[in-house]
Amino acid sequence: MAEQDIIQNLIFQLGQSQDDRLATELGGHFADIDEQTTTDLLHQTQAFAKFVNYYHDHPSTPVGDWSNFFPDAINIPDLLTSQDANTPAHLALLLAFLELYKQPQSVINHLTARHLDFYYQDVLRLTKQAAIADKVHVLLELKKNVSPTSIQPANLFSAGVDATNVEMLYAPTRETIINAAKVASLRSLFLDASGHGTVRYAPIANSADGLGGELPADNFKWSGFGNSQLPAAQIGLAIAAPVLRMKEGDRTVTISLQLSNMAANITNAALSKAFDLLLSSEKGWLKIDLVSPSLSSSNLLIFQFTVSAKEKAIIDYDSAIHGYAYSAQAPIAQILLRTDSLNIGYDDFRNVTIQSAQVTVAVSNITTLQLESDGGTLDAKKAFLPFGSQPTNGSRFLVGYPEALTKKLSEVSITVQWKNAPVNFSDYYKDYGVTLTNNSFQAIVTFQDGGNWTYNGQSNSLFNANNATEKRTLVFQPNTPSRSANITEGMEVYALSVADGFWAVNKAKKIVIRKSFLSTYQNAIPEPQTGFITFSLARDFLHNTYRQKYVENVLKFNKLGGTLVTLNEPYTPTIQSISLAYQAYSGLINIAAPSLADFANPDLQFFHITPGGQMREHGYQRQQVESQLHAGIGLEVPLLPSFNDRGELLIGFQQLNAGDSVSVLFQVAEGSANPDLSAATIRWFVLCDNYWRPLSRSEVVLDTTNQLLSSGIIQFVVPLVATTQNTILPSGLIWIKAAIPGQTTAVCQLINIVANAVEAKFIDQGNDSKHLLTALEPNKITKLQNGLAAIKTVQQPYASFDGKAIENDIAFNIRSSERLR
Asked: DSSP strand E in 657-733: where?
């Protein structure tokens, strides 16, 4: 026989309910002394009448029997059901007698029951159970701008009148404070252990699909702690860093995360399709394709990717454009764990922690520059004169690009295409009577970056040494070279400060010397201009010499004759095109062992992305972290948000403040819990600065739900440390969380969660005894008996419960017999 058939047969066997378990021998009418009915007595009378003589005229001579005075058997049913007034008088008297006979008959037939009662009640001294008053859950709402109100047991609720026209009253079982709090949001989270683990999330828990789908009217219940059918949640991490602010050009980004406690199966192959990466751009989130992070042997996880020049600018996070609730004023890179990966999942990262993080960028082909000369603003869209039409010693050319110069730079370079420049200046100026090379025309460069690097007073050749017509790229790096002896031509020059002078480097010979620039350059070094790279000419382009030399040649020709030497006109530096490139980095933030400076680190912020929002590490609980740092205790900061419980129920209360109390009704679908599981252990938390703080027994002051196995009220006292301005869940609400570490089906499914509930108990005022036979219907209670000025509405959305009428004879006998057994 199939297993389901066996179970079905067991269900239908006798003894499954208490009524089925009563032994027939214990029934009050199992053996009645007189079991005859009225019909039986009429049949008996008809039969007996045949044996009784009827005397009419003479007392000694019978004329027959009494059969004719009584109906035949076939007519007895008609006699008993007749509603006419034509029943013969003698039969009417007989029927009346038979009705009266039922009284002594009942007494006789109750003899066995009386004997059983005597045994149970007089001999064994068993008593019937008294009636139990039913209870109701009443929901109250205050009027606007009313202070919290206390509801006392003396504040009676009226449920109308019963069948005997006596008012039914219900009294609160305890004092309850009613305030303006309301349940504004219900959310649930479920940790699905299948596969590599998936975090599932319902932003609207009280719905069919967790996303707001309507529940069926005939089955209005939902899983408060989530289930495996919920949609997968978006979890991950995010980096906010000003260095990511990149308007244009070809952009390469490297995000380096130093990790620890790595799982063995986290390999480069498994990581290849484990994450999605998004950047905050002008048009919303820019998704980076084909992100393949690399993991080194030292557990350094590196995300390197490019953003082409065709893409929009990477800008500061803006909630109006990008959504979410990041507390950042910088561009953000989101790294999201994918839920469709077959090789890796949330469980693999459960114990992974992050030690430090850093971001570097390399941007090239930047052409939207701010260009200025001593004569004013320059237009880079056409050829321009960077040092003016008559450049002299000290003429300035300024290249501005605040995006780069406000960052900590590891390199910046400028590429220039000179227009109509000669190939070799030595040949071009050969008739000027001076010896010049392409390296003779230099400029002193000054600028400051957003860190501690000041590039001050360095001399750089403006043209390529071999061919001035080729593009010239000037590269500036904050090197700190070693010292040597002599400075030679062709060295690239670096400087730390004006006081230290400059350093010259001959790359070929690897010779480095220090020399005071004041002995080389007579003019003062200009101060760095904020946001600009300043080029100051170290010498002119011989425009004055050209005029002098031209006059000398003409005079010489007129005086001596011969061939007139024709000079090339001095070259006026003209830029055909210019572009900038730079490499920058963020400061390294120590996440697991931060210094106090890391709390206000402007270079980089580390965020966790949770299903309900985002939170910044080191942005909260500063006092706690500071105490750990002073004690030398490191922080265990997980790479991804931690979820330690199998299921979570998140309740958001509006108009509730820290220090308030709230009485919450949890209406459950009783009987929907899995009976094969042990009772669940529910832990309660409150959200404080994005961290969940456990609620103590003094803060969960009442729980009548039996661990959410029955409908009831839980009263919370919100601690003073609770906050409403959080980012991992919508702000403006007090959030309370219930968490179950084990099986979530060990608790009942939920029907509703409502604030400001009061439990009230029936007060017997001589009411109809049948009241307790059935539950009080919903919506019978709509008011207080005497009213309260602060109360706006009174609701009783659900039927009463726990009511029980006084025990009847049958129930008493069943209970007594089972107890004796």
From this structure: 661-668, 683-688, 691-694, 700-703, 712-717
Give residue for tokens 């500036």. 476
289 band by pLDDT with thresholds 50, 70 and 90: confident
Q: Are 301 and 292 in contact (CB under 8 A)?
A: no
Q: What are the strands, taking DSSP E only, across 595-635? A: 605-610, 613-616
Q: How many CB atoms are located within 10 Å of the residue 747 CB?
A: 28
SS3 517: helix
> Cα-Cα-Cα-Cα dihedral of 515, 521, 525, 531, to 10°?
-90
User: What's the confidence (pLDDT) of residue 364?
Assistant: 96
Q: What is the largest CA-CA distance in the chain?
A: 202
pLDDT, one tens digit per residue, over 24-73 is 777 777 788 888 888 888 888 888 888 888 888 888 888 888 888 887 77
In the structure, what pLDDT confidence band is assigned to residue 421 with cuts at 50, 70 and 90?
very high
Amino acid (one-letter) located at 118: F
Phi, psi (rounded to 5 degrees) for 553: -65, -40
Q: Which residues have a Cβ under 8 Å from the Cβ of 129 and sit 6 or more positions away?
A: 804, 806, 807, 812, 815
E strand spans, 149-197: 149-151, 157-161, 167-172, 176-178, 182-192
Name the residue among 585, 584, 642, 653 with its Cα closest to residue 608: 642
Q: Which two tokens stand for residue 497?
A: 């400060």
**Alpha-carbon distances of 490 from 161, 444, 493, 538, 699, rounded to whole Å:** 108, 15, 9, 15, 77
Distance CA 270, CA 292 (A): 10
CA atoms within 13 A on the CB side of 64: 5
Strand partners, 755: 664
Closest C-alpha among 281, 271, 450 to residue 349: 271
User: Per the structure block, which two tokens stand in for 590?
Assistant: 């120590």
- Residue 296 CA to its chain's centroid (Å): 32
**H-helix or E-strand spanning residue 332:** strand 332-337
Which residues are registered as beta bridge partners of 442? 461
- C-beta atoms surrounding 710 within 10 Å: 17
Calpha distance 201→211 (Å, rounded): 9
Q: What is the 3-state secondary structure (H, E, C) of 661-677?
A: EEEEEEEECCCCCCCCC
19 or 163, which is more confident: 163
Rounded Cα distance, 288 and 281, in Å: 11
Distance CA 692, CA 273 (A): 32
Q: Spell out the residues 6+ positions from residue 147 whose beta carbon is closer than 8 angstroms to its own.
A: 790
* 266: its two tokens: 């986290």
- Distance CA(282)–CA(196), nearest Å, equals 35
How many angstroms separate the first and last alpha carbons of the chain?
Answer: 33
- Strands 167-172 and 791-795 turn out to be unpaired
Question: Quick one: tokens of 791?
Answer: 């109360």
> What single DSSP character describes residue 629?
H
Q: Output the CA torsion 425→426→432→433 (10° steps).
A: 150
Which of 93-107, 326-340, 470-484, 705-719 has the weakest average pLDDT? 470-484
Instruction: Assess whether pLDDT exceeds 70 at residue 251.
Output: yes
Q: Are 65 and 53 in contact (CB under 8 A)?
A: yes
Which of 506 and 437 is assigned the larger pLDDT? 437
pLDDT over threshold 80, residue 521: no
637 contact partners, CB below 8 Å, separation of at least 6: 353, 354, 591, 592, 606, 617
Burial class (CB in 10 A: 0-12, 13-18, 19+), 696: exposed
More confident residue, 205 or 548: 205
Mean pLDDT across the chain = 86
DSSP structure class, residue 180: S
Taking the CA atoms of residue 224, residue 226, residue 232 and residue 235 in that order, the dihedral angle to the nearest 10 degrees is: 70
The token pair that represents 91 in the structure block: 């039969």
Please compute the mean of the pLDDT values over residues 99-105 and round it to a whole number. 88
